[in-house]
Each structure stands twice: as structure tokens, then as C-alpha cells.
Amino acid sequence: MTRLARIVAMAWTLMLAWCVPAFALDPRLEVSQYGHSSWKIRDGFSKGPVRSITQTPDGYLWLATEFGLLRFDGVRAVAWQPPGDQPLPSSDIVRVLASRDGALWIGTSKGLARWKNGRLTQYAELTGRFVMAILEDSEGTVWASGTAVPSGILCAIREQNVTCTGDTGIFGFAVLALYEDRSRNLWVGSSGGLWRWRPAPPSFFRLPGSPDSVQAFDEDRDGQLLVPSRSGVRRFVNGRLDSYRATGPGQQAVITRLLRDRDGALWAGTRSEGILHIAGGRTDVFSEGDGLSGGNVEALFEDREGNVWVATTDGLDRFRGLAASTISRKQGLSAANAVRASSDGSVWMSTSEGIEQRTNDHVRKIRVRGLRDAAVGNFVVDDGGRTWVATTLGIGYLEQDTFVATDTSARAVRSMVKDEEGIVWVTDQYRGLLRQPPSGRAEWTTWAALGHKDFATALTVDRRRGGLWLGFWDGGIAYFEDGGIREAFTTRDGLGGGRIAAFRFGPDASLWVATQSGLSTLRNGQFSTITSENGLPCDAVHSIIDDDLGSVWLNTACGLVRAAAADIDAWVADRRRRIKVEVFDSSDGVRSNASPAGYEPFVAKAGDGRLWFVRESGVDIVDPSRLPFNSLPPPVHVEQVIADRRPYDAGAVAGGQMLLPALTRDLQIDYTALSLVAPEKMRFRYLLEGYDAEWHDVGTRRQAFYNDLPPRRYRFRVLASNNSGVWNETGAALELSIAPAYYQTIWFRVAVVATMLLVLAALYRLRVVYLARRFNLRMEERVNERTRIARDLHDTLLQSFQGALLKFHAITYEVADRPQTKQKLEGVIDQAMQAISEGRDAVQGLRSSTLAGNDLARALGALGEELARDHSGDSPPACSVQVEGAPRDLAPLVHDDVYRIGAEALRNAFRHAEAQRIEIEIRYGQRVFRLRVRDDGKGMDPTVLAEGGRDGHFGLAGMHERASLIKGKLAIWSERDSGTEAELVVPASTAYSKSPAGPHTSDMQAT
Q1: How far apart are CA 134 and CA 178, in angstroms?
Q2: What is the spatial distance between Cα 869 and Cα 880, in angstroms, rounded to a whole number?
Q3: Starting from the edge strand earliest in sequence, which strands make up the sheet with 727-738, in order?
Q4: 925 exposed, middle or buried (CB, 10 Å; 0-12, 13-18, 19+)?
Q5: DSSP 710
Q6: Taking burial as the number of CB atoms within 10 A of a residue's CB, which of 46, 461, 569, 974 is the most buried?
Q7: C-alpha dihedral over 239, 240, 245, 249, to 10 degrees?
Q8: d(CA 268, CA 228)
Q9: What three-state secondary structure class fits 370?
Q10: Which one, of 239, 192, 235, lies nearest residue 215 by Cα?
């Protein structure tokens, strides 16, 4: 990585570290309504209590313990040590601070150290002292206190200058707390009281009624200093302690730590009561009994994403904002059954104890008299202001908070609605559909009369048409009007299957139906159903409601789902689209149910736009205008590489390259990303450049695994997204390389290849020599055989014929007186002489060695001259040889057979054609070798040509046989009085010589 790239990356990290997210903790909520996670010492999180917390610009939390320093990414706490040659003053860590320049200040029981850019600096002025407090002021000066007996000191550190004060004992034995207020006053809490150290001159205040020492500071919204006291939090005004009133418990707790979060709420850590949360003049307590890791608070800290961290003597706790806040028994709400919004902006809920009305933070509880132990399941208010309720004792109305029953037979009410005429409609699981006018007698219609064996679970009024829509337990919906069913729809019509949970009318009067198999909509008499195949996280939908921001909220079996209404309408127009949704699950504070909890309606929208969802143990409240959104891309880090079970620190090679040993087999790369809101929802993808072809999307996994990587240089890249899906597209990278073994090096491979080539060359040379010897032996055998045959023919057969011919001549003289006999004998003599001539030609051919030369044109030319001399006619035909192309050596056996074919064609032309001119054409082509012999004689008999020669003559047949042996093609054309042409074509791969043996061994063997 270049220096410029490192500077840019550092600037990006600093920007991420100190910018503020869109939302933090809602001060209107109690601590128990925030998301809470706990890491306890007894579960192995750390060896001892966490004393101090800070966060460096790279996103890590640093935790000070008496057993050393821990680096925490929200998932893993790893013990940290500087390099061996740079030891800390002590492993007993008391305080930590991350300064704005990225340095980590480490206060120990024996001195102060500063860690930056891989270098540890110690400060001699504080050596041997217990560092109790560290602060960086607005000017960048770092203040640190050193505690010792009998006097503690306060040091100001600015670059390389260190100035210390306190040796005279003015601070007593210790400076316990440091704080700079918004007016840049520097406050010092000592064992004897309170100092305003800056602006000069310093002023000391002894605080009567306060603890013996001041261990914490903060300030209220008005800028007044807050300090802990024996009677809770007090304000320090004009040198005196004043009251800081807040209603609620915990006012007498001994407070040791203070923190005001970015939304103005004050957090106070106590010695044994846990934490106090003070906001809006109200105090609530979160103690060990509520799930806090311990009662004694050691440290409070707010990270860059707005999470509040609480360190206790027994562990570490995190509090974060959630998308859904819960009102439950902790806030005084018993189990809710149904929820409705009133026109005055309040929200009404039926509970096991009666009815509750909530307006902002005001709660009005209506305890219904006359119910005894019965619970209110559902309720509705008619036009006259009368509240009708469905209870386990029947149906009735409230009169001065007293229940007046009108029908005691209805004890399993599923839903209640009021129509435009003020009539209350009730569905009872067993009785049927009840019509209750404002005054008068109720009327029942059984389910059987409506054609159903099951019962209705959902009910709504169609205010456009005036009737009712009923949704049933076993599925299907029906439109009810004037005492009967007018329309009915089932899955055959495209409606989702299973239980019908709720209805909703869209702005265009379309009907939406929540079913167990998806969200269905009825438009123009046709149903369309959105399921998990179209973008929903699951199919079962319990309720549906619009917010004020143009979104539709679905309560499903897998959480709350938000989708833009425009996206849903676009899907209805084009069902091939996929709906983009946002899912809120348990990590967002949403409690899911497989089936709807309570009674319909399960959801209501309050006047302030918040949505209230009924749950089994209370209600979940979602404010669509204040959804927590984490806009900070998480910093990403490669922490370590484990090669064959040996760890390597990736941080030690930042900007360089990690060299791994040769023959590394198993490689594991550990990485992380620093978003502390919901680390369990972070997603990762990585790529190993030089090996991977595409990115690996591995979800929440924080390790990459590779096996048997070849030795070369690699670049590992990893990206991450936070809980809101915001990706850090820069990510982190690590350059690494695997060294090659000696046999994996280039020089070794080149040497092996060269050796193999030499061996192959030697083997090839031996093979060539072997084939050449074998070829020469076969050629020598062939030549010797031909010579022997020629000699035997000449010495035996021809000589015998010659002797027989002389005797025939002698006999002609003895039969001179017998003319006919003499004439016959002379004919026999002529035939014998012709046979002798042909035999001599054969002997001459046999004696013509294939090793005599490779000049085909010269050989055929010489044969033509010889035949011309021996010609018995008046004048021999003119014979010419023409060569086209650069002459090339023919393979020896090919040359021999080509010559034989050409010689036979020449003899036929000289002896039988009666030609005036004979032409020999030799063409050395790149692809084929071609030989033509043409004459202008009388031509051949077509019958002879067709039959391949005369009976008893083998010239033409022999020519074709020789052509076939050399893989050539022989063609002969002839016409009466137009001459004859013989053409031989041989493929270049066969014809031309490549080596002494080459590809012609097969030809030799075939011959």
C-alpha cells in the first residue's frame, strides 16, 4: 500500500470514528426498553473486572483489567501485549484513553504509557505511580494523574513536554477524576474535594455532604456541573451543591460514575444498585435483578455508534437502541389482548385486568367492576361513546366503569367492529355472528347458516359497500350483507391459504388480506398473493397496516416487515417483479409469534404515527420516523493468519507483506469489522486475489479457509456491512506470499524441463540411429536380393534363352525346304528375342540401386536417351524433362517406386505409342509430389485401359500396385490418335525425405 493510500485510509478511519449516527438511544424510553447484552466474568469473558473503557479510531474497544489489556470487537475479547522489547510499566491496567490523534494512553498501577504507530512510549514523571485518571482537553493536551502516598500529582503532557504539579500535597494522596466542561473549564476531583484547575488561578472547593472523594463529573443540559453525592446526583452551582431533582427510585444510591449520552439522558453508576437512568425528570433503575452483569459499576462509556457500555465488577453490559420498544409488565402493563387508536391520539388496550388508555407518557387504567377474575378480550366504542367489551363472562358494555352484560353466551369472541350505522358486530367461535344495535336486542347468525363448519377469525366493515368481510379459520373469505353471504373466495380464486388473520383497505379501495400463506389483494374480482417467492421473508402474515411515510408494515411469523406501498402496487401491475423489504427481527427488539397473539385488531396506528403491535406479554411500539439506522460503515481489519496451526499477527505487517513458509498446507485468515450495535448481524465477503475468481459471501463468518495454495504472491481482501446493511466498500487488505520449496522454484522447474528435453533428445537420437540402421539393413537386403535375382536371370534364364535361340536358328536351316514350318519357327524366334529383350530390361531395372542417387529428373532423362538409342523405328520420338518447384529429395523407397512407374510409362510410350514427342513433367509441390508422362501417339485401346492391361502383361497393373504402396494415386488418360497421359500424385508427407527413416518405414515394410 502506498503512503498516500495509507494516509487516505487513516483519514477515512478517523472520520468514521468520530461522526455521529442518525439515531442513538431514545431518552423517552426506560433502560429495560433498550437492547441489552451482557458478557460475564463467570462465563469466561475476562479474568477480572473491567475498570475503564475507550474506543480507538479503528473501532476497537479497549478494556482495562488488573490482568492486562483486552481488545474487544463486540464478539471476541483478545488479550493485547506490546512487542517483547517494549514492555508496559505493569500488566495491572487501571485507565485507558484514546486520543484524537489515534494514540492509546494506558494508565497502569506503575506508570503511564502511550501506544502509537507500533511504538510504546513511557513517561518517567509518572513511573511507579498509580494512574487513576486520564483526559484529553479541547486543545489536545493530555492530563494524567499519578497517585501515591503521601501526595498525588497531576501532569499535563503536550507533545514532548511534560509538566507535573502536586508534590506539595495539594491533591491529597490522589487525583481521582478529570473533566472539561463545555466552557473549557478543567475540573479535578481529588481525595479532599473539588478543584477548578483552569482557567488560572486554580480554585479549591470542599463539598460538605459529599463523599470523601469526587470520582466522577458531568454536566446537565444547562451546562451546570454535576457531581455524585451520598444522596444521589447534585449540581455544583456557584461553589455550592444544589439539588438535581428527578422522580423515581434510586435517589439515595451511592453514585460513583456519571455519563451523559448524546441524546441528553444521564447515566449514573452506583456502588451496589446497578445503574440509574435519568431523562425528562424521571429516573428508572436497571439492576442485577433486571439482568445487569453486576450491581457495582466500575465504568461507563458511550461508543461512536451511540451504544452505552457499563462495566461492573462481574462483567460488561451493552445498551443500544432498538427499532421496536416494548411495553410490558416492567412498565406496568399486563398482557395486552387487543389494541385500538382513538381520534384524540391516545391508544386503548384491553388487558387481563381491564382497559388501559395511554397518551404520551400518561397511563389511565380502567379496572372494570363486576368482572371478578374475568379478562377483557376485545372492545369497541360506538357512536354514542359507549364502550362495548367482550369478556370471558360474555358481551356487554361499560357504564361508569362497571360491566353490564347483554349476552352471557358469547365467551369466545374473536373480533369486534362497528359499522357506519353504529351497529356492533361480533364473531364468536362457537355461537356465530352477532349483530348488536346501539339499543335493542342482539341477533345471532350461526356459522352453519353461513355455510361454514369453522368460524370467522377476522372481521372488517366495507365502508364503500356497507357490508362486512369475514375471514375464516380454515381459510377463505366472504362478503356478508343483508343477512347473507353475497360473495365468497377461496384458494381456487388465488387467495392465500390457511387462517385469515386480518383485512386492510388500500387507498384505491382494494382489499388486502393477511393469510397464513402470504399477503393477498383483491382487485377487479381477481386475487394476487405475495409470498416468500416474491420477496417476503416468510409466508405467514398476521396483520397489515400503513404508516404515515408511505410504507406498509406486515406483522409476520419471522418479524416485522416494511415495504414501500409503491413497490407493492408495482408488483400488482407486474408480478414478475420482486418486492424489496426490510425485516426487523429479535435483534431489533421485535418478538415474533408463529400465530397472531391476542384478538383482532392486532395492530393500531397512534396519532403521533407510532405503530402498536400486540404481543403475548405486552406490546411492541415502532416509530417509523425514528427507526435506528446505522449510517457508519464498519472499519474492517485482518487480525491474524494461522498457517498450519501457527499464528501470525497481521497487524505486525501493516503496509508490508506477510511471508509464509514453504509447503503451507492449511491456511486460516481471521478478520473482523467494528460495528458494536449488533455484531451478530454484520455480513462479510472476501476475495483472495491470485486464487479466487469471484467474491465469497460468507454471511456472519469471520474466518476464511484455504488449502494447498500454490507458492506465489496473494492479496486477501475483505469487505463488511453493519446491521443496517451499510457496506464498507474499501474494506481491509493483506498482502501475503507463500515461499516455494526448492522443487517449486522456477530454476528447479527449468532444470527439470531442460533435463527432460535432453533425455527426450537423446532418446530421439537413439531411435533415429536405430531406425536408420534398420532401414539401411533392409535396403541392403533389398538391393542384394535384386542384384541376386538379376544375376540369376542373366546367368541362367537369359543365357538359357539365348542358347535355345541359337538352336532355333540352326533348325531354320534344316527346314529350309519346308516354308510353312520355317515361317512358324521364325515367329517363335521373334517372340523369344522379344522376351530376351524384356528380360534384359528387367535385369537392368533390378540392378538400378535406390542408393544410386535421388535426382529423379536426371534418371528419367537418362532412361529416355537410352530408349531413344535402342528405338527400332525410322526416327525416335523427342523426349524432354520439365521440373517445376525446388527439387527435393524423395524418400528412398518412394523414389524407387516413382522411378519404376515413370520408367514403365516411358517404355510404353517409346515401344507402343508411335509418338513423335514424349514429355516428362516433375512438380515438387508443398502438399503433393506430381509426375506426368505424356505422348502424342496413337493412344491406347479403351478396352485394354479399362481392363488394366493385356492378358499376360503386367505393366499397367504393376504401375498401379507401386502407386498404392507409396500411398499415391495413379491416373491414365488416353484417346485414339490423341496420345496418352499418365499422372502420379503422392502426398508430400509420404513423398519427401525427412530423415534416414522418417515416416517411410511403413512404406519400406509394405514394399
Answers
A1: 7
A2: 15
A3: 657-660, 727-738, 713-721, 683-689, 696-699
A4: middle
A5: P
A6: 46
A7: 110
A8: 9
A9: coil
A10: 192
Nearest to 373 by CA among 357, 390, 393: 393
Sheet of strand 603-605: strand arrangement: 324-327, 618-622, 611-615, 603-605
Which residues have C-beta within 8 Å of that of residue 1004, sequence separation ≥ 6?
A: 775, 778, 779, 893
Contact 1003, 893 (CB under 8 A): yes
In the DSSP assignment, the letter for residue 19 is P
C-alpha span between 930 and 858 (Å, rounded): 16
Alpha-carbon gap, residue 492 to 602, rounded angstroms: 28
Helix-strand-coil percent breakdown of the chain, rounded to 5? 20, 40, 40
Q: How far apart are CA 679 and CA 303, in angstroms?
A: 14
- Yes or no: say if 298 and 309 are a contact pair by the CB < 8 Å rule: no
Please state, in angstroms and rounded to a whole number, the distance separating the CA atoms of residues 376 and 397. Answer: 11
C-alpha cell at 151: 501526595
> If we measure between CA atoms, which residue out of 62, 119, 131, 134 comes closest to residue 87?
119
Contact call for residues 446 and 434 (beta carbons, < 8 A): no
Please report the pLDDT score of residue 5 as a whole number: 40
Strand order in the sheet with 581-584: 541-546, 551-556, 559-564, 581-584
Q: Rounded CA gap, 135 and 98, in Å? A: 9
Find all residues with CB under 8 Å of 745, minimum gap 6, and list them: none
The single-letter code of the amino acid at 414 is: R
**Is 226 in contact with 220 (CB distance < 8 Å)?**
yes
DSSP class per residue in 420-446: TTS-EEEEETTTEEEEE-SSS--EEE-
DSSP 8-state secondary structure symbol assigned to residue 591: P
DSSP state of 1000: G
- Which band of pLDDT confidence, cut at 50, 70 and 90, is reported for residue 485? very high
Mean pLDDT for 249-258 is 80
- At 820, the pLDDT band (50, 70, 90 cuts) reads confident
What length does the chain have?
Answer: 1007
Q: Where do we find the cell 472476501?
A: 686
- Angle at the Cα of 906 (from 900 to 909), degrees rounded to 5? 145
pTM of the model: 0.73
Give how far Cα 147 sits from Cα of 13, 144, 165, 974, Å: 35, 10, 12, 127
Q: Is 679 left (phi over 0), alpha (psi -120 to 50) or beta?
A: alpha
Highest averaged pLDDT of the listed ranges 161-175, 430-444, 473-487: 473-487
- 263-284: buried (b, 16+ CB within 10 Å) or exposed (e) per residue? eebbbbbbbebbbbbbbeeebb
What separation, in Å, do the N-terminal and C-terminal C-alpha atoms of the chain show?
73
| CA-to-CA separations, 498 to 315, 517, 536, 595, 774, in angstroms, rounded | 47, 6, 17, 11, 90
Sequence-distant (6+) residues with CB within 8 A of 146 are 112, 125, 126, 129, 130, 131, 152, 153, 154, 155, 164, 175
The pLDDT value given to residue 910: 85
For cell 471476541, the residue is 76
Q: Is the Cβ–Cβ distance between 900 and 962 less than 8 Å?
A: yes
CB within 8 Å of 230: residues ≥ 6 apart: 209, 210, 211, 254
All three cell numbers of 496, joined, read 392465500
What value, to the nearest 5°, has the Cα angle with vertex 982 and ends 977 and 984? 170
At 1002, is the pLDDT very low, low, confident or very high (cuts 50, 70, 90)?
A: very low
- Measured CA to CA in angstroms, residue 856 lies from 398, 782, 902, 924, 993 at distances of 129, 20, 9, 11, 14
Can you spell out the DSSP letters for 641-693? EEETTEEEEGGGGTTSEEEEPTT--EEEEEEEE---S-GGG-EEEEEEETT-S
List the grid coordinates of 776.
539401411
d(Cα 945, Cα 830) in Å, to the nearest integer? 26
Q: Helical H runs in 793-888?
A: 799-814, 819-847, 856-869
Q: Tens digits of per-residue pLDDT, 668-686?
A: 999 999 999 989 889 999 9
How far, in Å, CA of 519 to CA of 505, rounded? 13
Return the SS3 of 233: strand
Instruction: Tell me which H or E stretch contains 611.
Output: strand 611-615
Measured between alpha carbons, how far is 567 from 114 in angstroms, rounded to an integer?
54
